[in-house]
What does this fold into?
Amino acid sequence: MRFIYDKLHVRFRSVSIVLTFLLLYLLNQMTEFSLSSKATCLMILHAAKYPHCCVSGILLGKKDKNGQVVNVVTVIPLFHRWHQLSAMTEVALMQINIMINESQQQIVGYYQANELLNDDSLDATALRFGEKILSYFNDAVIVLLKNNNLLNFSNAGCFKAFSWNGNSWKVKSPTQFYFNEAAQIQRVVEACFEAKLYRSLCDFDDHLENVEFDFTNSEIGDMIDSM
It folds into this structure.
């Protein structure tokens, strides 16, 4: 009897684990992400300033009242030199958490534009960043910028978004990752390029060289909001 009990217990635990992963997968698949114009522009400007580099940063946002949509309010550009997790990564994340501690925003994802033009795959660094951010936010998303399609705003075609399904990172559909101001996003991005705002953008790498550089890019963000 003891043997039968132990066997049933093991099977029950196995089924419970499978059901848990399935539930996490379904919840992540249902979670939608809505990108603000500011978040969209800052990611594209970061890639435009360093077209020869792999650039990366953090998405900040919050869930809506129903908990089904994550509104990505802005992003924090981090790196264009150091493409790996390091002590500087921890310092950057600590500073970001301090900055948002008193706000309702939180770290909700990670973005990256690869160095090669046609490379739209997740590398080891992106995967490790994604795992790191999952410890902050269960519905974390990884956003990959398509370097060869950056000005395709139809169905957020300039981005490729991934969510965690309990086992691996899977591509989110356009109905789950979209612009919250789709009608004006192209106009705002074009206005940013006309104003050459990418020249003024700073990331955390720049901040490490000169602490007076604002890697939150609050002034640029205000300009984008006013466009």
Notes: The chain has two domains: 1-30, 32-226. The chain has a mean pLDDT of 88. The longest strand covers residues 69-79.
